[in-house]
């Protein structure tokens, strides 16, 4: 029994042979066979990926928008009471571990206040509901996981944007604009556009943090995405899924970081090779 | 706002000091043994009361005692992993910068490879293949991952230091490599390394708790903040005290480490200003890194 299974999955071959075979399969787009669900790993990830992309995509967009807005506003009034209050709050949110924030939100808004659902992407009865109610139901399930991810990632963006905005406002061109008598709102808008450059890099920086966040947040809120799949596979000792998950996660992070680098080069002519 | 920063430093040091004392005295402070099942029939899953300030869990164990003992594990893991981390980063970073040439380029490429893989994925991958994680192996795991960013900063700082006149002069007069490192380089790297270590303590504590919460770190009978959270995860609605108390302990400790790291960095930055060496020739150009998350 054991011998037939070992032979079927090729566990009898030397490690190096198994590794080369796995590498060859990976390059041809085959992620292997799941011993746990008895189906190709690729289809399992194809099911989980859209859910994670929805979560991360919404969280990333929101955190860039919120972080840039908060940081620019803080950087325009550095040292003011509002800046200090916002800095303290964002320091606390920044330092809190992902699962701490997610568990706190879950406990308060779902278990104690019963405002929002605790787990999953949809309610059990959602397939029997009319279309609008179904969308609303999905939206309500999305709020807490997205909020957990967004809160942390946006504080990272805000930190950079605040410093960039503060530094830009002291540059000569801003002084010149003020000296010409431009209204302060227009001066700020000009400075803000110039201060966006370093912030683009941060988009690459928040990605690893979002990966970490996704693993914990998906577990806490029972969100059926890649993080959840990875964790389940670890407990089921399904190593094909685990390795595929790690490879996919790292590849996506590296790819997105490279994209952020390219975006920065496109936005800042000084970084282009002459 | 120097006064506010000082206050933050004082508060964080006070909390961390209290935590260290609590952790050291846990066996005497805690009313029960952390793994003692007091009375499975009558004392399971009790809400907080005078006899059990943090309540009891499903196995009738006193959560207050477990949280106190968890502080020992969290602090030990945090400090030991951070120490290992900083030593690895220091040796690798300084080594790369001092080696120079092709060796440095190769070592920096390797660092970039390490940097491109998110730390949590590495930890998950290793725990997937590692059956029972003990405290020392967890320390090893946390210490051996996540030192890449610090190593890069150390390499940059060392490379900048080596170009400084005093190092060039020391080398020209034939100071041996070890003495150069001990007398001329390490003192300038201490601010950077100590700030990085403080943030790393926070990261290691958060990761230990997180992994144990997922059920992948330390295993159940051990009383750590993460394993208590793991016990409480399925009964969040009814036994909230299993999540709130260890969760608050983790969050406050991680916050205190971050506050201390920030305050230390400001302190070192202030020292640079206070010595008045604004010329790039004299000022030790060692940038102190910002906080980093795992």
**How many strand segments of chain A?**
0
Overall tally of domains of chain B: 1
The count of DSSP E runs of length 2 or more, i.e. the number of strands of chain B, is: 0
CATH superfamily of chain B: MetI-like
At a glance:
The complex is a heterodimer of chains A (274) and B (294). Chain A is mainly alpha-helical and 274 residues long. Chain A has helices at 2-9, 15-27, 41-76, 81-95, 98-112, 131-169, 172-179, 184-221, 226-235, 239-267.
How would you describe what is shown here?
The complex is a heterodimer of chains A (274) and B (294). The N and C termini of chain A lie far apart (65 Å). Chain A has 274 residues and is mostly helical. Chain A contains ten helices and no strands. Chain A is globular and about 85 Å long. In chain B, 70% of the residues lie in helices and 0% in strands. Chain B contains ten helices and no strands. Chain B has a single domain, classed as MetI-like (MetI-like fold, Orthogonal Bundle), CATH 1.10.3720.10. Chain B is elongated. Chain B has helices spanning 2-29, 63-99, 101-116, 119-129, 135-144, 148-162, 165-172, 177-214, 225-233, 241-274. Mean pLDDT of chain B is 80; it is low at 274-285. Chain B is mostly helical and 294 residues long. The chains are: A mainly alpha (274), B mainly alpha (294). Chains A and B meet through helix 4, helix 5, helix 6, helix 8 and helix 9 of A and helix 4, helix 8 and helix 10 of B.
């Amino acid at each position: 029994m054991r011998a037939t299974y070992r032979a079927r999955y090729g566990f009898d071959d030397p490690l190096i042979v198994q590794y080369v075979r796995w590498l060859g399969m990976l390059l041809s787009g085959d992620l292997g066979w799941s011993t746990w669900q008895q189906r190709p790993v690729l289809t399992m990830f194809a099911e989980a990926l859209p859910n994670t992309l929805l979560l991360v995509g919404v969280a990333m967009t929101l955190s860039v928008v919120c972080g840039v807005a908060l940081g620019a506003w803080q950087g325009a009034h550095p040292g003011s009471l509002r800046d200090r209050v916002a800095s303290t709050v964002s320091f606390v949110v920044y330092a809190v571990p992902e699962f701490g924030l997610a568990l706190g939100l879950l406990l308060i808004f779902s278990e104690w206040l019963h405002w929002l659902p605790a787990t999953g992407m949809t309610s059990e009865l959602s397939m029997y509901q009319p279309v609008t109610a179904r969308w609303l139901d999905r939206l309500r399930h999305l709020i807490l996981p997205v909020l957990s991810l967004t809160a942390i990632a946006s504080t990272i963006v805000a930190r950079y944007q605040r410093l960039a905005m503060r530094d830009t406002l002291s540059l000569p061109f801003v002084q010149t604009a003020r000296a010409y008598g431009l209204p302060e709102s227009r001066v700020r808008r000009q400075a803000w556009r110039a201060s966006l450059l370093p912030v683009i890099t941060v988009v690459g920086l928040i990605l690893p943090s979002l990966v970490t966040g996704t693993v914990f947040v998906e577990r806490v809120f029972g969100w059926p995405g890649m993080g959840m799949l990875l964790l389940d596979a670890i407990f089921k000792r399904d190593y094909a899924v685990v390795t595929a998950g790690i490879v996919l996660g790292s590849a996506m992070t590296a790819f997105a970081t490279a994209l952020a680098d390219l975006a920065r080069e496109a936005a800042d002519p000084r970084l282009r090779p002459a | 706002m120097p006064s506010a920063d000082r206050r933050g430093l004082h508060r964080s040091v006070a909390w961390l000091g209290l935590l260290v004392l609590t952790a050291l005295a846990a066996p005497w402070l805690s009313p029960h043994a952390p793994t003692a099942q007091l009375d499975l029939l009558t004392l399971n899953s009790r809400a907080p009361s005078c006899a059990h300030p943090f309540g009891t869990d499903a196995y009738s164990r006193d959560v207050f005692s477990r949280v106190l003992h968890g502080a020992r594990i969290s602090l030990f893991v945090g400090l030991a992993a951070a120490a290992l981390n900083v030593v690895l980063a220091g040796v690798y970073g300084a080594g790369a910068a001092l080696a120079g040439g092709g060796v440095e380029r190769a070592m920096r490429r390797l660092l970039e490879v390490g940097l491109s893989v998110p730390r949590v994925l590495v930890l998950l991958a290793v725990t997937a293949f590692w059956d029972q994680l003990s405290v020392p192996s967890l320390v090893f795991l946390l210490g051996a991952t996540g030192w890449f960013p610090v190593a890069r900063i150390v390499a940059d700082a060392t490379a900048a230091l080596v170009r400084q006149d005093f190092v060039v002069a020391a080398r020209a007069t034939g100071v041996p490599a070890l003495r150069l490192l001990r007398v001329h380089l390490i003192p300038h790297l201490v601010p950077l390394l100590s700030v990085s270590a403080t943030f790393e303590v926070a990261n290691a504590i958060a990761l230990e708790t997180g992994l144990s919460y997922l059920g992948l770190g330390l295993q159940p009978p051990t009383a750590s903040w993460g394993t208590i959270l793991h016990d409480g995860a399925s009964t969040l609605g009814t036994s909230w005290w299993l999540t709130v108390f260890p969760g608050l302990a983790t969050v406050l400790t991680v916050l205190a480490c971050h506050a201390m790291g920030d305050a230390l960095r400001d302190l070192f930055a202030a020292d640079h200003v206070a010595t008045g060496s604004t010329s790039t020739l004299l000022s030790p150009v060692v940038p102190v890194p910002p906080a980093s998350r795992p």
